[in-house]
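Protein modeling request. Please complete all fields; requests missing the sequence field cannot be processed.
Requester role: graduate student
Desired output: 3D structure, token encoding
Chains: 1
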Amino acid sequence: MSEIRITELENGIRIVTERIPYLQSFSLGFWFNVGTRDENLHNNGISHFIEHMLFKGTHRRTAKQISDSIEAYGGYLNAFTSKEHTCFYGRGLAKNIERTFDVISDMVQNPLFKEGHIKKEAGVVVDELLDIYDNPEELIFDKFEEILFKGSTLSYPVIGKESNIKRFNSTELHDFHNKYYGNKNLLISCSGAVDHDKIVELTKKYVVKNRDSKGKRKFQNIEPQTFVKVIEKEIQQVHCIIGRTSYGYKDEERLILNMLSNLIGDGSSSRLFQAVREKLGITYQINSFVNSYFDTSAFGVYFSTSEKYVEKVISIVAKELKKLTEMKVSDKELKRVKEYLKGSMLLSLENTSNRMIRIANSMLYFNKVITVDELVERIDSVTSEQLLQLSSQLLKEDELARLIIRAKNNNTKAA
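Delivered output (415 residues):
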């Protein structure tokens, strides 16, 4: 049985831990409430770039010493940036938790941002950006949200623009870091073989800079966008997203939305997988998705297929979505979806990193930890009537946006 505890220090840092007594390892995350939403056109990509730069050395450690400090003891260190948060995290054996805490706290408080390091890392990040451009499966999601969230900073790609990446300098990075990497913007999350009081003690010992977080997030109104857009690239397959904006973390309907997405295209038992791949064999990839943010989400269906079959797949998707607006799901199908969601959630909790991320997201979006039992109860409470009502609201064909990436010099009329 796990034990969850929460502490907020006088300086504004929040700490959430989940003790799992039968484990010998931990996952530790330093979460900052900063991401692409806090950028502008001039500095888009800076949150992600700073994430990279924090591994390049501090006043106490070189880049190699940072990695060696963790990996020499069998641990793991990494980070990621999203549109709303940046997380630095480590995994290891329980006896090495202070070592990991020391290294991450040093990284996030004392970055060097040397000009030579910045120029070198700009080349690495631009290479990462070009990898995305070469991969239509990734690129299409960036482009879809760019158009879908037009007028909002949510439309910006996490990785940023090449011109910005090549222009970043030490002063700009320090200014942004000082503005957003303050104590009130920090949540420390830890799961596994961990003692809560020990994490509180380590926080007081190692997070010594009493920085205020001057950067405050501004939320823009997001107007629904309905569009049909075609992008041409040197590729073989056609990639397509059909979708729209929908409910975010703050909305009670989000769980029903996730269940609807699961019903449509999550797993090989889902309606679209069965209708398009299993029955006709005309696509390898077809799935639904919900990319959630605090106040909204990008919700839809993604697939890839040959040029020959793209119109057919689009028509089948439209047909299956229309069915969901007209007829309640059967008790049998509803039960399958519920069991799939509960099973996926419970299986993911076999991993301490997933558990650490789960409790952190719960704190960041709800300011409390929603227990697994609560989630199971909420899943079980969803009715077929609620799914029908949500489908009728969200799946109207004339309100769905469409983005296609297809081969250049194609004579086929755009869908």
